[in-house]
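Reopening: structure tokens for the S-adenosylmethionine complex, inputs below.
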Amino acid sequence: MSQSPQTLVDLAAKVTELSQSLTKLISDNGMKAPTLEADSVTSYEGMTAEIFLMRQQLVDVLNDMNILAQGPSESIFNYVHNCMPDTAVLNILNYFDFWAAVPVDGSASYQDIAKHTNLPLDVVRRVLEHGITLQLFARAEQPSHVKHTSRSAALAKSAGLKALVSTILDDAGPPMSVMTEALRRYSVGKQELTTDMRENAFTLFHSGAPYGRKYANSWEFIENDGEGERKGWRQRNFVTFMNYLKDIFRLENVIKDSYDWKAAGKATVVDLGGSGGHDAFVLAKAFPDLDITVQDLPEAGPVFEKDVPAELKSRVRFMAHDFFKPQTVQADIYMIKLILHDWPDAESIKILRGLIPALRPGSKVLFVDYVGKQGNAAELPRSIQQMGTATDMRMMALFNAEERPVEAWKEIFRKADERFEIQRVDANALTFYVAIEAVWRG
Ligand SMILES: C[S@@+](CC[C@H](N)C(=O)[O-])C[C@H]1O[C@@H](n2cnc3c(N)ncnc32)[C@H](O)[C@@H]1O
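Re-run output (same inputs, fresh job):
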């Protein structure tokens, strides 16, 4: 049965209904509703699954209203006109830390900001003028002064949010602008997307060495960009970003629930590609018998050393290790969390095979990853689906990789080596995470 078309007024009624229900739920849960002012809460802290779902339904209706309010053609025109300047301005404000140039409870002049950011006054003014249209800063009472809004203040208050913007816009954003050319060169006329890592938008974008040298992949770039003390700044930033993701998506429980750590007892664990150790710290605190080696690229090391709590130092350590090289640490459990989705199948298989030299019969591999593609995806609000589809596009641009369904991960284990026996698969539809436990039968 076809539905009658939705009008602006129908949608406005839905917005009212959802806004009222959401406001009530927020208040019933003792939470504070955000405002547009600088002193607002920075997020829906303490949000339940019900509130999250309702909020995303509201976002969907608002997005549809936005289309109807403009009309189909102009909704495209306005989007196309604005989206690149919008992201460029957010990235500039973030990169040059305009956030810290303005006191959260006061205002700053364009001149002050130019001094703080070391940018020409005219550039500061023009960037801010566009930022203000996005609720990133607002005009203050004094002429040529700006003050924070809740959005810019959130970035001033949170190093994690700032790191997220930097990683997604400044590291991963530019290659996405050449996806058309990468697809034209390497994938047009083929049955499937090329999975050759030399044939993606990242390598095409970096082939002209815009940052001073050519980088083979995103990790090499993140690890090596910058001179002198600045070298590795993108990796340090990335570590902060991953830590922030853990906090906002409350991944502590995903990590703790992904395995029966208590039953594991006095186990040794390698956290492969464990970044600055945020997951290892969670596990070591909750399970005092675990002994964990965090392995990652060298520039994650200094962040680990800065962050590792003193009481965990005897049980949690950092080791620089390239996971494409043979594993040298013998452990009971190898955790691989949010690693393989960054790589095409061939590289994912290589990473799993890299473990084999250290595996003993009974060694466990615990794979934990985000499942952007769920069977029930089409039933979810579109704004939730976008979380998976947007990551999927980013994976395509950077790595020729993709968000995979659970079955595909099992297949990767099987292709890596028949001696990996999958013992458990836990896909959680609410958290979007899957945990796969494999035992080595070598
Ligand atoms: C998406 S992050 C996941 C971090 C962490 N496991 C988590 O779940 O939060 C991917 C990690 O892989 C690391 N990585 C990339 N290439 C690597 C390599 N060749 N050897 C070791 N680590 C690598 C990156 O530095 C980064 O910390």
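Residues 219, 242, 273-275, 279, 296-297, 300, 322-324, 337-339, 342 surround S-adenosylmethionine (CB under 6 Å). The radius of gyration is 24 Å. Marking as resolved unless the reporter disagrees.
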